[in-house]
Write a structure and sequence with these properties.
ImmA/IrrE family metallo-endopeptidase; Rad_response_metalloprotease; 297 residues; five-stranded antiparallel β-sheet; alpha+beta; 12 helices; Arc Repressor Mutant, subunit A; Beta-Lactamase; IrrE_HExxH; disordered C terminus; 2 domains
Length: 297
């Protein structure tokens, strides 16, 4: 279920207000320490199923958050804890997800359930606040270098950082996640969506042949050792209705997660109308962040 623009504004404002109240106005944000300061017990656990990434539980008036011991990436651990914090803090979530006293979350950034999507929105803004990440993206680094810098400074996973990059960047960028040659999902910047002929890549479609991503998608050793490679490509190989647009194609193995991350950055100049709802627009945005006054997006 899609989250409305107003609902996203409410959740992002909640995350920002929680950060301000906790004095977390710089990177990185530590969600474990934040939860513990709210008297929430946080610990790792051995999941009963491989794809279970975390849990939120309630016992009387006490709450606990767990993250899977199978998660070795600090970035994934942080996102898992921040996601569960979202369930704890967003209005209506405790009643909805803790009806049986314990809620299990499963790995995978794009969920269909509304509560899971809302918790992801909270975790994204909490760990990678727009006000603090947009200056990184506006800096000298571009594409995958900017994504790696976000991951480094936010102590977030490369995948979460890549998705956040597409939400903020002015570049024509798309992120594709795949496993064993099959697409999990695609996200893209506003600029990329404006390229004529772009069609959305959907879950369970095959990674197109004659792409660097296809070459690496079934190489499990390459993926599990978190290797990376870059190339150039005509976007027609990915999107048959696109004509005359070339792009960089960066591919990165995501280690034990077993997925391939692809970043496409197109050589295309999109229309760039003034967007009054863009929270990063205006020179006073950082001041509004520090003072706790925000304009929603």
């Amino acid at each position: 279920m899609k989250i409305s623009r107003l609902r996203k504004q409410q959740i992002c404002t909640l995350a920002r207000n929680e950060l301000k109240a906790g004095g977390a106005l710089s990177l990185p944000v530590d969600p474990i320490a934040f939860a513990q300061n709210k008297d929430i017990v946080v610990q790792s656990f051995d999941p009963p199923e491989k794809d279970i990434s975390g849990f939120l539980m309630q016992l009387g008036n006490n709450f606990g958050i767990g993250y899977s011991s199978q998660i070795k990436s600090v970035g994934f651990q942080h996102f898992t804890v921040a996601h569960e914090l979202g369930h704890y803090l967003i209005d209506g979530h405790v009643q909805a997800v803790l009806a049986e006293g314990k809620h299990l979350s499963r790995a995978g950034y794009i969920a269909k359930d509304q509560y899971e999507r809302e918790a992801d929105v909270f975790a994204t803004e909490f760990l990678m606040p727009w006000a603090l990440v947009s200056p990184i993206i506006a800096g000298q680094e571009r594409g995958m270098d900017a994504i790696r810098l976000i991951a480094e400074q936010c102590q977030s996973s490369l995948l979460a950082s890549a998705i956040r990059f597409t939400e903020i960047t002015k570049e024509c960028a798309a992120v594709v996640l795949s496993r064993s040659g099959t697409i999990d999902y695609m996200v893209a910047s506003d600029g990329f969506r404006q390229i004529p002929g772009i069609d959305w890549l959907r879950k369970k479609e095959d990674v197109p042949p004659d792409t660097l991503s296809y070459e690496k998608s079934c190489d499990s050793d390459w993926i599990e050792t978190a290797q990376s490679e870059s190339g150039r490509i005509d976007l027609v190989e990915w999107f048959p209705d696109v004509s005359g647009v070339y792009a960089s194609e960066d591919v990165v193995g995501l280690g034990r997660y077993g997925r391939l991350l692809t970043l496409l950055v197109a050589d295309y100049d999109p229309d760039d109308p003034e967007d009054d709802d863009d929270p990063s627009s205006g020179s006073e945005y950082i001041d509004r962040w520090s003072s706790g006054v925000f304009r929603g997006r």
